[in-house]
Amino acid sequence: MIRAIIKFALRFTTLFLFRVKVVGKENIENGKPFILCPNHISNWDPPTMVASLKRNDIYVLAKQELFVNAFVKWLAVKVHAIPVKRGSHDTTLLKTSIKVLKENHLLMIFPEGTRNGIAKKGKIQNGAVLISLMSGVPIIPIGIQAKYKPFTKVKINVGKPMDFSEYKDKKNDKETLENLSNTLMKEIIRLTNEKI
Fold first, then answer.
1. Has residue 121 got a pLDDT over 80?
2. So what's the pLDDT on residue 7?
3. Sequential DSSP letters for 108-149
4. 81-84 and 34-38 strand pairing
5. Quick one: the chain helix, strand, coil %, rounded to 5?
6. Residue 171, Cα to own-chain centre: how many angstroms?
7. pLDDT by residue (tens digit) across 132-176?
8. Domain residue ranges in the chain
9. What is the C-alpha separation between 159 and 137, in angstroms, rounded?
10. What is the pLDDT of residue 95?
11. Fold observed for domain 2-193
12. What gap in Å lies between CA 45 and CA 146, rounded to an integer?
């Protein structure tokens, strides 16, 4: 009940502030698990994504720093945010992520690892691909096109699922993880730059 109220508030706020257009939402089939991988340009990305997609079972990996404030932590838990300690190799996080997917939910991961990672030419993180290989769940790349200024248009370009299951036996191969992560990032960049 509380989650439904929070999502309604998020939806009302984001749709009031921004004119949101979602293209390709049919790629996120109901009842199926997917790993959602958008680009990351603003703190508005997670709430806008959660508010704009119809499915109510979206879990979001979020930096641990957001969970310091008691109210923010309470709010984050209610909207299914999962804390991530950046730079660590957290096996508990992997188990939690795979459990979410096995229960046929959506898991949102920002593979840039930080805001504007593409613009900063930062190194893409391998976590999304690793979780995909371990769980057998496809990744859906997403390009967010926005400046997040009040009353401007936000475009969410949802790509087709990327199935990396043929590489499941190479989940411990760093080179394979990096190559697949770069392939994923190229598709996210394409969707981000595509005119819709």
1. no
2. 77
3. E--TTSSTTTTTTTPPPPSHHHHHHHHHTPPEEEEEEE----
4. unpaired
5. 45, 20, 35
6. 20
7. 999 999 999 999 999 999 999 999 999 999 999 999 999 889 999
8. 2-193
9. 15
10. 93
11. Glycerol-3-phosphate (1)-acyltransferase (3.40.1130)
12. 9
Neighbour order of strands in the sheet with 81-84:
19-23, 153-158, 139-145, 34-38, 106-108, 58-63, 81-84
Count each helix (H run) and each strand (E run) in the chain, helices first: 6, 7
Tell me the two tokens of residue 174: 């760093």
Count, residues in the chain: 196
Which CA distances in Å does 49 have to 92, 145, 164?
25, 12, 24
156, containing H or E segment: strand 153-158
d(CA 11, CA 53): 10
The single-letter code of the amino acid at 11 is R
Other CB atoms within a 10 A radius of the CB of residue 165 amount to 11
Query: Using CB atoms within 10 A of its CB, is residue 91 exposed (0-12), middle (13-18) or buried (19+)?
Result: exposed
Gap between the Cα atoms of 51 and 122, Å rounded: 28
Q: Which of 91, 17, 70, 83 is nearest to 47 (CA)?
A: 17
**Band of residue 87 on the pLDDT scale cut at 50, 70, 90:** low
